[in-house]
Amino acid sequence: MFQHFTLRHIPALLSGTTMAFGGLWPLWDARGAMLEFGMPANVADAPSSAPVMAVGTARTSILGFIMLLFYYRQQFEIVDSILAVTGFWAGAVDCYIVWKLGNRRQAIFRLVSSWLLALTGYLGWTANY
Q1: Helix 10-22 vs helix 104-122: crossing angle, to nearest 10
Q2: How many angstroms separate the CA atoms of 113 and 115, rounded?
Q3: What is the pTM of this model?
Q4: SS3 letters for the chain?
Q5: pLDDT (tens digit, 9 = 90+) per residue, 44-55?
Q6: Distances, alpha carbon 116 to alpha carbons 3, 73, 88, 113, 122, in Å
């Protein structure tokens, strides 16, 4: 899997691994995952929010595993495309939701970090090794 690894692959591997395995966290500890995400305690403590978080992040895990699968297959252009699209859109949505819930610092962090990862995908860092 790592025969063609270069330092330029780190953003895609970091993003894919984080999405794949981090998206599983709410299955065991939805409250902790929501707090880490940036949601306030009143949202994390609501029993009805746990299944919504778990279902939503299961789809995030799927995208992460798909990125890792395409990386393994050395289809780096596809990895970059997934990184660009998910990084841009997830960053925007995450920022919007967390901002509206009052955690402005976490919202900005989510936007900037996601958009930096999206930029590396858009620029084709993984494919242009």
Answers
A1: 130
A2: 6
A3: 0.89
A4: CCCCCCHHHHHHHHHHHHHHHHCCHHHHHHHHHHHHHCCCHHHHCCCCHHHHHHHHHHHHHHHHHHHHHHHHCCCHHHHHHHHHHHHHHHHHHHHHHHHHCCCHHHHHHHHHHHHHHHHHHHCCCCCCC
A5: 999 999 999 999
A6: 26, 24, 9, 5, 10
